[in-house]
Amino acid sequence: MHKLLQNDPGARILLLGNEAIARGALEAGVAFATTYPGTPSSEISLNLFQIARESDLYFEYSTNEKVALEVAAGAANAGLRTLCIMKHVGVNVAADPLMTLAYVGVRGGLVLISADDPNMFSSQNEQDNRYYAKMAGLPMLEPSSVQEAKEMIGQAFELSEQLGEPVLLRTTTRINHSSAFVDFGLLRKPVTKGHFQKDPLNYVTVPAVSRKLHVKLLENLAKAEAISEQSPLNRVTGQGRWGVVCNGVSYNYVRDAVADLELTDKVAILRIGMSNPLPAAKIKTFLAGCDKVLVAEEGEPFLEEAVKALAQEAGLTLPIKGKGEGLFSRLYEFDPALVRGVLAAYFEVPYTPPTRLDLSGVPEMPARPPNLCAGCSHRATYYAIKQAARGMDTIYPTDIGCYTLGFLPPLSMGDFVICMGSSVSSACGFSRATDQKVVAFIGDSTFFHSGITGLINAVHNNHNFTLVILDNGTTAMTGHQPHPGVDMDALQMQGYHHVSIEAVVRAVGVEHLTVIKPFKVQKSIEQIKSALSHKGVSVIISQEICTLYARSLKTLKARPFQVSDRCKNHRTCISELACPAFYLEGEKVRIDANVCVGCAVCAQICPENAIVPVKAKG
Amino acid sequence: METIRLIIVAVGGQGNLLASKILGEAALLAGVPVKMSEIHGMAQRGGVVESAIVFGPAHSNLIADGEADLLLGFEPSETLRALNKCNPGTTVITNLAPLPPFTVAIGKGTYPDLDRLQTVIRAKTRQLIAFDAATLAKAAGSILSLNVVLLGALVQTGLLPVTAQQVQQAIRSKTKPDFVDLNLNALDKGMAAARKV
């Protein structure tokens, strides 16, 4: 049985934040869950995906976040408790349904998890999604610990059903990827079958209906504010004439800083756990009891600006600060020493920062950047395209996935990326605006996510570029989640249809389509040359399973290679491919047989044919 | 009780996360609050995995630069890279078997000299416990037990609020049944190595 399905209330289990969130959803009786995977949210859905195979939960990997939220909106309006999970930038994709779903509301509880990533550990930006709650007019909850994250899911469902509105739950990486002991509660049996009650004058958002629904949304927001005023999620701890307002993980750093600086009798802390709508009266009362207030929040000055506005309304003139020179930054994430230092400086208390080591004389360390795996098909595809495009003035718009790593030298295949799907559409712009040869890269999962509309645009507007779809049969980067093009039989899962990328590309009217097997180097180069010379939109589908995925499916048959005596040390293999299976032994190139899987790309490009299979042991 | 802050650094695939989990379970047995935080986004793509483990009453699960009481490195150059987490009172434990990053192979970096690496760490911190944990892991039966060998050395310092018995019990309950004996053996080897150093 899945460890999160144990009906063992009171058990204390070490859980990752994301596991605690999944458990919280089960304890809240979640019946329906949708997602598109994205770090740092991915383990929430990975656990629910596994759990759905042994319980009544319906779970799906939707094609993108907009689809995930719309599917969830249907289920929740049929009355089911529904969870929708995505990373912060995923909410951008889902923003269209979100803004109007707020008008329509929900019947069964709907909780949307936005997993934000301050410091961009695995994201293209560090946007602060608290503004989505404000913009949509929806409640938002923010946990400060792993245990609280589990409890808050249940509270979010209750709140959602009480108001008839979706509720956002915002985490940050330091909640998702933290572990702590969590106390299990009772599992609640979900209601798994709903019924939709027709009510077009409240569901069909033509202008006349929406004008009425906006009024309802504002009424709900007012109800939510009354709840926020009473909610223990927004709570004052400690007492003193100095105040700190904080949220999320900052609350932990503030509590530790107050203890470390011995300020427990001087500082009152207002922890905001419901960040929209804010408890205006509670904040004004808090401010009225303080001489000076500091706002500690990662990201944007969301609370700070609200608190300052409330002080103005209340006619209070005390100093209130948060972001600024010598205080907090809008950049990156906080840590305990940073918060301690700012508290000490702002409240002017003596503080000696920790003794930093003098790092002079420390030998230089070689960088350890992430790299495409040994036997990764993307490396082979990039190499072949580089050869085929030799001498051309190229632009390589790329996209989001493992293959983004191809931008690093020596491959250096990746010139522009902004968001999921942008490779295809930006290629339209680059090719029209320049005379350069544009070759765009997109992964299979990303193609389904948001590449298809861009490709249709390209065909219709007769743009001129080559799109390379890197089809490795899985959503590799986030941990091998399925997508519509995945063979679900390989996962022993029935009841799915397979969508062929090739059929989609043909159906949208692409005239020049080539399917390559990238481990056949010479043949691939010839096929790519033909595609590159086509005037108009040409598509290359490069098919080869992700080597890590093959390993996890136990279908990988590694046949490692070795460097023979014929090697004359050209090092073409190392300098062109940068495969991590290579290492140097003195001045000699060697292949680590434990790492090599035998893609044989290096063997095909070696000018001396010096790379040969390791002979089978006799 | 006092708060004890431990940083573990490793290269993806070295079993850092299981080591953290064993320590967490041992802390539960000891009745010591524990919070952990890890960054493992690109671990499978050859990147670095860093775990912060905070034992005791602190609420934070992050460890700021200069604030680690203990640094445990699974790979020597990564131990060196994490030195910014240390202060003059930090105890450092490191494996001495290198896993050179690919940048070294393509001539974009030089692997630091191991003697110099140890001299530098020893000079700047409270103490350094350095030994070849890979050889000990292989002697215990599998290179995969490298993480547990290093846990043994960590426990031997006596600086953690958990006992060897609690770690052994955590190994029995949290590692795969077929590997329990091997891991217990690896733990002993790590403890013995730290006694000798």
From TrEMBL, chain A:
CDD domains reported for this sequence: TPP_IOR_alpha, TPP_PYR_PFOR_IOR-alpha_like
Annotated cofactor note: Binds 2 [4Fe-4S] clusters. In this family the first cluster has a non-standard and varying [4Fe-4S] binding motif CX(2)CX(2)CX(4-5)CP.
EC number(s) stated in the UniProt entry for this protein: 1.2.7.8
Domain spans labelled 4Fe-4S ferredoxin-type: 587-616
Known partners and oligomeric status: Heterodimer of the IorA and IorB subunits.
Lineage start: Bacteria, Pseudomonadati, Thermodesulfobacteriota, Desulfobacteria, Desulfobacterales
GO process terms (BP): small molecule metabolic process
Protein's recorded name: Indolepyruvate oxidoreductase subunit IorA
Gene3D superfamilies registered for this protein in UniProt: 3.30.70.20, 3.40.50.970
From TrEMBL, chain B:
Domain of life, per lineage: Bacteria
Keyword rRNA processing set for record: no
Alphabetically ordered keywords of this record: Oxidoreductase
Gene3D superfamilies linked to this entry: Pyruvate-ferredoxin oxidoreductase, PFOR, domain III
GO molecular function annotation: oxidoreductase activity, acting on the aldehyde or oxo group of donors
InterPro entries: IorB_Oxidoreductase, Pyrv/ketoisovalerate_OxRed_cat, Pyrv_flavodox_OxRed_cen
Domain Pyruvate/ketoisovalerate oxidoreductase catalytic: from-to ranges: 12-191
One Pfam family cited in the UniProt record for this chain: POR
Coiled-coil residues: none
Protein name per its UniProtKB record: Indolepyruvate oxidoreductase subunit beta
Source organism phylogeny: Bacteria, Pseudomonadati, Thermodesulfobacteriota, Desulfobacteria, Desulfobacterales
